[in-house]
Design brief:
The protein has 251 residues and is an alpha/beta fold. It has 5 helices and 7 strands; from the N terminus they run H-H-E-H-E-E-E-H-E-H-E-E. It is 35% helix and 15% strand. The chain has a 7-stranded mixed β-sheet with strand order 4-3-2-5-1-6-7, with helices on both faces. The longest helix has 29 residues.
Length: 251
């Protein structure tokens, strides 16, 4: 009887402990506990369509090729730029990739407020704050948005592009251009200005499902008309437009 009573007491204590733990977990979900470190892990599964676009860019025989990635906020521009940059590094067998970052608010390799041109020689494996580095060339606009001075924004892009073409392109470095998430009104005009100035071999347009994340870039590039479809065939001397869904909306 004594053993049975002890087992019952132990079971009751264990149940109470599990119940208390459940309450703690529930309360922790409701509010942040001071001093607690909350670690969120989510596996990144590359959509097949994204992989097809990367493969199409890697197979481009015109080297060095320029790829411009555009889309509204939250569609995965930075994620795609990291994926493409790492793929280009791998294909180059230890070479380098030029990375031109025009996202003032959420840059990939530098503090906010800067338009930067970087030379990347190692894979980008973590979030932006884990791979900050000194830029090859940078312009400070003193703001996290180009709304205050769009002319300076375009001038900074053209200056970085000139440096790439004069110094890095002759070394055979491909160029990845990361753009801002402002794709309406003046923001769309700025994107079109960047497209016209760079005349990229590839344009990756990431489209969201909501109306706010949909946009048309039209005939922005002088080398248009576009060749659509992205993953199929060569571009035949024209800019190739790869229009794909946001990373979390791809089937």
């Amino acid at each position: 009887a004594g053993a049975s009573d002890a087992a019952t007491a132990a079971g009751g204590a264990g149940g109470a402990a599990r119940g208390a733990a459940a309450v703690v977990r529930k309360e922790t979900r409701k509010k942040r506990v001071p001093g607690a470190l909350v670690v969120l892990r989510r596996a990144l599964v590359v959509p097949p369509r994204w992989r097809s676009v990367v493969d199409a860019i890697l197979s481009d025989e015109a080297a060095p090729a320029t790829t411009l990635v555009c889309g509204a906020k939250g569609v995965g521009k930075s994620t795609f730029c990291r994926l493409l940059t790492n793929a280009l590094l791998s294909a180059a067998g230890g070479g380098a990739v030029a990375f031109l970052d025009m996202d003032l608010g959420q840059p990939e390799l530098s503090p906010p407020g800067l338009c930067c041109l970087h030379v990347v020689t190692t894979p980008l494996l973590g979030p932006a704050h884990t791979h900050m580095r000194r830029a090859e060339l940078a312009y400070s606009l003193g703001d996290v948005t180009p709304k205050g001075d769009p002319d300076d924004y375009v001038a900074a892009f053209e200056g970085l592009l000139r440096h790439y073409r004069a110094v890095l392109a002759p070394r055979g470095l491909p160029l990845v251009v990361n753009t801002q998430g402002w794709v309406r009104g003046i923001g769309l005009d700025l994107l079109r200005a960047c497209l016209a100035a760079s005349a990229p071999a590839h344009v990756v347009q990431l489209q969201g499902a909501s109306k706010q994340r949909l946009f048309e870039i039209g005939d922005a590039v002088p080398r248009a008309p576009w060749r659509l479809g992205g993953a199929e065939g060569a571009r035949g001397g024209r800019s190739m437009l790869h229009s794909v869904s946001a990373w979390n909306e791809e089937a």
